From TrEMBL:
The keyword 4Fe-4S does not apply. It comes from Drosophila arizonae (Fruit fly). It comes from the Eukaryota. Residues 1-140 form the Nudix hydrolase domain. Keywords: Hydrolase, Nucleotide-binding. This is Bis(5'-nucleosyl)-tetraphosphatase [asymmetrical]. Coiled coil: none annotated.
Length: 149
């Protein structure tokens, strides 16, 4: 059986810039990824995403504006076995809130879209960041065009 994981692509708005959070693994090939982790038996994907984000970055659900209806899924192989990772997009309400790392990561970076894509490296992850970025821009555009005073 393959592995299943879930997490959040987190972004913040700082000085007019959209920045994505990436964490550097303290093990294996020291890869960079958004907060995420293994789905425990009996746990639903969204609960896993919240739990892992608390464990790996220190953020609670109340700290986030979550794009609940539009998760994206990555499928790849780890050591010859299929892995599925479900990501939701979420914005950090307070862009200055501190990230609290766990032992699973040694470093963090908040990066604008193109630098975040370069940092994650994997093509499917880059496509996901691009799609999420489009979502943010579309939501922003619709807000601007809503005719509200
Ligand atoms: N490899 C490891 N060695 C030692 N301890 C470990 C470990 N992985 C987890 N642990 C430990 O296990 C415990 C439970 O962790 P927990 O977080 O509960 O479970 P997990 O499934 O291990 O968590 P992740 O899915 O975040 O693991 P990962 O970082 O290995 O996965 P990723 O897919 O990014 O990365 C897996 C591989 O896939 C590669 N990869 C990532 N994204 C892609 C992609 N899009 N396409 C192709 N390859 C990719 C990465 O470069 C990497 O090589 C923790 O204590 C943790 O420290």
């Amino acid at each position: 059986m393959g592995k299943r994981a879930a997490g959040f692509v987190l972004f913040r708005r700082l000085c007019g810039e959209i920045q994505y959070l990436l964490l550097k693994a303290s093990y294996g090939d020291f890869h960079w990824s958004a907060p995420k982790g293994h789905v425990d038996p009996g746990e639903d994907d969204f609960t896993t995403a919240l739990r892992e984000t608390k464990e790996e970055a220190g953020f609670d659900e109340k700290d986030l504006i979550i794009y609940r209806d539009t998760p994206l899924t990555l499928n790849y192989e780890v050591k010859g076995k299929p892995k599925v990772v479900i990501y939701w997009l979420a914005e950090l309400r307070n862009p200055n809130q501190e990230v609290i790392l766990s032992e699973e990561h040694t470093e963090l970076k908040w990066l604008p879209k193109d630098a975040a894509k370069e940092c994650v490296g994997f093509k499917d992850n880059q496509v996901m960041i691009e799609k999420f970025h489009e979502m943010i821009l579309n939501v922003d555009k619709n807000r601007t065009n809503c005719g509200c005073p």
